[in-house]
């Protein structure tokens, strides 16, 4: 395996003339085993150092190029070994590709910070100059996970990324920060992610993170070494009690049920553990993590919590109302603007509505997996195929529960087209009242039944992967930073144009032309990729 991977790398690196392309390729190679458990052997030693040793014995340009790139992007041990091996090959008369002369000449010239108004996440753009050209790296730090890096990417258009950030009305404008400030945020954030990965906890990172991690981390390592982080002094018992009492005595908490105190104590405790510097802040992402911890036993995998706390029946009954009141109180206390408060209310209300009650049927994980894999011959699918199928089908139908009007549906079968339709209707609460009418009126100029039908058609196409261009386009648009609903609407606009003739009787639906136009979606997107700041349930 090592020989085949190395030989492929030699050919690839000999065929490229761009140093950034070469670095991205090697970063992707190193990322293929990042985060894998070290048993029975450490893959960084078995594969990473194995590739270095193999390349050291191959006197060809691609081997020198690979070694020089690993000397910049690898682990400390790999960097040392690769640099020595490349020097030896060069001394023996083997030159590397022309681009190797630019490796190591890069420098960070600017840093920009941006984030959502709630403080759930912070993004940093580093602008890098090398050999007269500029590129950038974008890093997303998730504060609901204790300040871990969850996404990182490379762009060759940092100025356009900055323009996109400034044009995003959903987040405050980015602000210039010093390289020292960038280092103080990013260095410990990468350490937290890597520590979690080494512990085998499986950090919650974007699917493309591993491929870009080595290159982005190499750019972060160009920053000044940050001083030791100051010790955060958390709330003592008296301060925690005072915060709970302040909340329960507020106008927002008036008439809450008896279990509200226990819920408030858990909210304070969770905030202090996950974001100790700001234990009483509030945001949709933080509330989402809180609910995962107490309802789904999904404690943060950064090691900050041992296990999720247990709720009494009284506390569970009080939880929805307490969450809504807490969001109002904590948002007012934090000085959130009204637009942010409206967004927070909507998000928390959605989460509160989805909270189960004692005795509610809960789908087993096996039942859910079986539903998403229904109709497939599992013997014909490899592990990677299963991952791809689940990703595609869960993009079409990302949950198994829905709320339509005042009625809860805790377990809809995603493999059933009718149940898929109910889930989609649940995703559109703005149409619930209209859809209750057999002949609904337009809502804000939109035919609600037609809109839901279009979503159902796209969900069915994604579920069956037919045509394949639909899922391929969805992945491209998602990678470009568009959220799921916007991706579905982009596909729906194309679908509507092609269905118009069939619906009006003016022409037949041309499946080939539809697939061709869908295949063009997202291809105009370039490196101007902005990591979305708000997590959607």
Describe this structure in words.
It contains 21 helices and 7 strands. A 5-stranded antiparallel β-sheet has the order 4-3-2-1-5, sandwiched between helices. Strands 6-7 form a two-stranded antiparallel ribbon. The protein has helices at residues 2-15, 19-31, 43-56, 61-73, 76-91, 158-167, 179-198, 209-220, 237-248, 260-274, 284-295, 313-334, 338-353, 365-372, 383-396, 417-426, 432-435, 448-464, 468-479, 484-504, 511-519, and strands spanning 107-115, 121-130, 133-142, 148-155, 175-177, 402-404, 407-409. It is globular and about 80 Å long. The chain folds into 4 domains: 2-102, no CATH class; 107-220, no CATH class; 237-353; 365-519, no CATH class. 53% of the residues lie in helices and 9% in strands. α2 (19-31) packs across α8 (209-220), α3 (43-56) runs parallel beside α5 and α19 runs parallel beside α21 (511-519).
Sheet/helix structural class? alpha+beta
Contiguous helical run count: 21
Q: Strand order within the widest sheet?
A: 4-3-2-1-5
Strand and helix order: HHHHHEEEEHEHHHHHHHHHEEHHHHHH
């Amino acid at each position: 395996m090592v020989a085949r991977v190395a030989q492929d790398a030699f050919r690839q690196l000999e065929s490229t003339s761009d140093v950034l392309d070469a670095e991205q390729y090697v970063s992707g190679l190193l990322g293929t085993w990042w985060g894998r458990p070290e048993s029975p052997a450490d893959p960084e030693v078995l594969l990473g150092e194995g590739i270095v040793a193999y390349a050291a014995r191959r006197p060809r340009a691609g081997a020198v190029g690979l070694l020089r790139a690993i000397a910049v992007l690898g682990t400390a041990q790999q960097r040392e070994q690769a640099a020595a091996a490349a020097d030896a090959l060069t001394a023996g008369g083997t030159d590397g590709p022309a681009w190797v002369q630019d490796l190591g000449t890069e420098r960070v010239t600017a840093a920009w910070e941006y984030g959502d108004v709630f403080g759930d996440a912070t993004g940093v753009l580093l602008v890098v100059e090398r050999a007269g050209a500029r590129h950038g790296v974008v890093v997303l730090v998730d504060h609901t996970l204790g300040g871990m890096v969850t996404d990182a990417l490379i762009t060759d258009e940092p100025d356009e990324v900055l323009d996109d950030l400034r044009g995003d009305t959903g987040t405050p404008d980015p602000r210039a920060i010093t390289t020292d400030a960038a280092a103080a945020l990013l260095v410990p954030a990468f350490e937290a992610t890597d520590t979690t990965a080494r512990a085998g906890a499986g950090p919650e990172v974007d699917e493309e993170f591993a491929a870009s991690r080595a290159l982005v981390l190499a750019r972060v390592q160009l920053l000044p070494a940050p001083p030791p982080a100051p010790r955060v002094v958390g709330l003592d018992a008296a301060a925690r009690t005072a915060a709970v009492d302040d909340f329960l005595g507020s106008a927002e908490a008036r008439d809450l049920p008896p279990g509200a105190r226990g819920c408030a104590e858990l909210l304070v405790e969770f905030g202090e553990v996950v974001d100790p510097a700001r234990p009483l802040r509030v945001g949709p992402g933080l509330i989402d993590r809180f609910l995962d911890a107490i309802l789904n036993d999904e404690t943060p995998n950064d090691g900050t919590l041992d296990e999720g706390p247990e709720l009494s029946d009284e506390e569970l009954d009080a939880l929805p109302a307490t969450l809504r009141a807490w969001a109002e109180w904590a948002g007012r206390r934090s000085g959130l603007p009204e637009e942010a408060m409206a967004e927070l209310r909507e998000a928390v209300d959605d989460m509160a509505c989805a909270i189960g009650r004692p005795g509610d049927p809960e789908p087993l994980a096996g039942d859910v997996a079986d539903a998403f894999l229904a109709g497939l011959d599992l013997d014909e699918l490899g592990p990677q195929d299963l991952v791809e199928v689940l990703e595609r089908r869960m993009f079409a139908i990302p949950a198994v529960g829905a709320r339509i009007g005042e009625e809860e549906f805790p377990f809809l079968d995603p493999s059933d087209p009718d149940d898929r339709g109910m889930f989609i209707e649940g995703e559109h609460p703005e149409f619930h009242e209209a859809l209750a009418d057999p002949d609904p009126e337009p809502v804000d100029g939109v035919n609600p039944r037609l809109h839901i039908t279009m979503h159902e058609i796209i969900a069915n196409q994604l579920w069956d992967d037919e045509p394949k261009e639909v899922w391929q386009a969805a992945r491209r648009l998602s990678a470009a930073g568009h959220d799921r609903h916007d991706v579905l609407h982009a596909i729906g606009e194309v679908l509507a144009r092609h269905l118009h003739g069939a619906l009006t009787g003016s022409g037949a639906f041309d499946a080939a032309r539809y697939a061709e136009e869908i295949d063009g979606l997202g291809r105009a997107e370039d490196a101007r990729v902005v990591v979305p700041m708000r997590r959607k349930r």
